[in-house]
Design a protein that fits this description.
Nucleotidyltransferase, domain 5; five-stranded mixed beta sheet; ROK family protein (chains A, B); homodimer; alpha/beta; about 325 residues; ROK (chains A, B); 13 strands
Chain lengths: ~325, ~325
């Protein structure tokens, strides 16, 4: 029986696991990313993790089949260079190349939303479906696309960037420079920003303000809590978010038409309260109402999705 | 050597061809669709065409391998029912089922934009590429998606409806009931409608009006001609169309990231004059400018694309 290493590089911590063929995490490490110390330091930490895992495997008389790495950025199609990583402030760093130079083991690197999509496809709500799309709603919006049971990132590694699909006109521009990106309507940042903008424009009769000392303290969790208790501004914000998520899902259906779309990430923790609003709105945006369309479900895997998905990357390539 | 039948059902004519393995059309029929006489009549004409082709093949001592049919509508995933066909006013007609009942030959039915995409993929500008997207700009906007050298229409037959991707807010609603569909910005209908709306709102200092007796006579060809001659309103309309086509293409790149995107259909006849404006605008909407993205080219096949693509449908399924 051979083992695989899955590494999940986040802005705060690096999590890694040694997985057996049944996807059990038989050995696990978590260390601070120390991103302020720069790429070379982070890279040396990743190398130490892999070396630790390798000696663990050899004590068990087992071999490592592959190393998979997930990170919040984009990787070129050869998996050599991390072109961009917002969280770590990396630009064009040769992580794949450096690690391949060091280890004689197949190494794959992918965007973390794509990795989470793989985990959902292998073990979660997307399990067993041929075509599926994972959307993660957090401070940004990421996507993972599975087509014919394989991860799909396009011909140049640019695909599955669902958060930057332009879907309307918004009162502020996206970090990417465009106006109207899905991310600026449905990320937690977007919802918070919408509420603050409304308050600054005079919508002050809201229970949100009774729960904070200053508008800086407003967060998405509070907005969702106030919405559930019937607050008007909070519901306006949640309904706007639900509308644009429904539009984003309908656009995905009009193009990819998957078997299932799974919603994950922090915002999705609001659960059925939010998802039911999206499901209510969705049919109006579907073109052919006579045909079935994909199910919309909450993702079910927790924090280990990043490690598990990364360990399976080779299989899904 | 076996033969394949390709049938292209349009609102005005039905074109059909008997093709050899080198995709030569060795026998050809074109008859009026007579759509006003209803589905049963049109179906009987299609049956006559197939019977004529079959007896032609048997005179040549050859067998028919498959029948492929393209039409401007949507077909269920089993290829049994034409769910919707705007041009022919068909709703849920069992064309596939009826033809299979009659002929013991594999029959595939697909959307005509998908069929044109297959033809471009086999013989045109998309030839040799693994992942490609065809966009047809006419009175509506259609799409054909090729992934891994196969036609991709999704899990329920709803995919590749690129014209109904929501990309913004528009001054009029789409036929489908939504606001902001790509089709309402970049179809010939959309460009004409935008110009007429501007004129009705007072933009009357335009050479377009010197070329017509009434605003009803304005068409997209005239708008493009006036734009090339420097007319301000015409250029405003063409630039708006180019902007939204660039957004539509960028959205496709952000999701599917194909090797190539081919633009076909009537509006594309404006050629490089129009395409150059789209190409100039596109980079600003691309997320990661460090990576290559797919080429944008004009489709190169003419009227026979519908017949040829239909005859190849079996191979691309």
């Amino acid at each position: 029986m051979n083992l695989n290493i899955g590494i999940d590089i986040g802005g705060t911590n690096i999590g890694a696991g040694l997985l057996d063929e049944d996807l059990n995490i038989i050995y696990r490490i978590e260390i601070p990313t120390n991103k302020d110390r720069g790429y070379d330091f982070v890279k040396s930490q990743i190398i130490s993790i892999i070396e630790g895992m390798r000696s663990k495997a050899s004590k068990l008389n087992q071999k490592i089949d592959s190393i998979g790495i997930g990170l919040p950025g984009i990787v070129d199609i050869e998996g050599n260079n991390v072109i961009y990583n917002a969280n770590l402030n990396w630009n064009n760093v040769p992580l794949g190349k450096n690690l391949r130079h060091r280890f004689d083991i197949p190494i794959n690197i992918e965007n973390d939303a794509t990795i989470a999509g793989i985990a959902e496809s292998a073990l979660g709500v997307m399990k067993g479906y041929s075509n599926s799309v994972f959307i993660t709603l957090g401070t940004g919006v990421g996507g993972g696309i599975i087509i014919n049971h394989k991860v799909y990132t396009g011909s140049h590694g640019l695909g599955s960037e669902i958060g930057h699909m332009i879907v309307g006109e918004n009162f502020y521009d996206c970090n990417c420079g465009n106006n109207g990106c899905l991310e600026t309507f449905i990320s937690s940042t977007a919802v918070r920003r919408y509420v603050i903008n409304e308050i600054e424009h005079g919508f002050i009769n809201t229970s949100i303000l009774k729960n904070v000392n200053s508008i800086e303290e407003i967060d998405t969790k509070l907005i969702f809590e106030c919405a559930e208790l019937g607050d008007e501004l909070s519901n306006k914000a949640v309904n706007r978010m639900a509308k644009y998520l429904a539009i984003g899902i309908a656009n995905i259906i009009n193009i990819i038409d998957p078997d299932i779309i799974a919603i994950g990430g922090g915002v999705a923790k609001a659960g059925d309260f939010f998802l039911d609003r999206v499901k209510d709105l969705l049919p109006r945006y579907i073109l052919f109402k006579e045909l079935d369309f994909g199910e919309i479900k909450l993702a079910k895997l927790g924090n280990d999705a990043g490690i598990i998905g990364a360990a399976m990357l080779k299989e899904y390539k």
